[in-house]
Amino acid sequence: MNESDELRDWADMRLFLALVDHGTLVAAAEHLGLSQPTLGRRLTALQKRMGTTLFTRDGRRLALTDAGHAIVENARRMQSEMHAIGRALDVQSSGLSGTVTISATEGTGTEWLAPELRAFHDQYPDIVLNLLIEARAVDLVRREADIALRIGEPTQPDLIARKLVKIGFGWYASRDWLKRHGPIKSEQEVMHKDIVGFASESQPPGILPLVESPPDSALHFSVTSNSMAARMSAIRAGYGVGVASHRWATMYPELVNVFPGRNVGSADLWIVTHEELRHSARIRAVFDYLSEHVRNAAEAFETGFVGEAPAA
Q: Quick check: pTM over 0.85?
């Protein structure tokens, strides 16, 4: 293979690594914003240019050949360099225009963030705010987002992170459910009620990922979900008692904090960006605005509650 045929183009690198990381044409095409047939044709053309096969098929899954394995690390290095170039260009950006992608979890991202950023939008109408709602921690180094609001301290290097507020969690139920089932007087009593809980493919049913379920307890779950939005919807609909953040639950007058003033658990909320992106004017503006407004809402995040449990 002569020099002109080498895999040097970033588009080829991005295509190759998307297939490596996602494992199927369907998933990689969705990630790249391409149709599956288009990606298939581009893969065929790429392998033809290289004069070798990079992937074999195992059903729908793609497996790297020896040739594919041989170039993965070089591809990763090229990816890293391209991201560094992008960050370097952003550093030079002094204009308050363009897109800023903010990663956040459900609740904070879906209910609080958009209304809170409205005043920012009015002040900087040329900055497009892209809200990325993900349960996982996005990779800021790879530019999956410019800013992230994360629960828990980040561990990636080359990041700027500020601890903003503590998020408090409590037991919540709908007023209708409490009318039908009566008041709850202790947390031990909660364990014998219908519980709206957390569950995923990798984790058995529990109260909440951030709150340990009591050991050796035979909890009765009425609804479980890996989505906090779905669990909140179930609590509001009267399926039972569930753990929710005070800040989010405060938005719904039909919800009652079963034990006002008490937390069943808590977690720190951090704001994170890449150290180089911190010097981009538009990203710095969003970063500083969010930092201030989250801290201004510290009481709602940590201790806010909706009403009191009805008297017996």
A: no
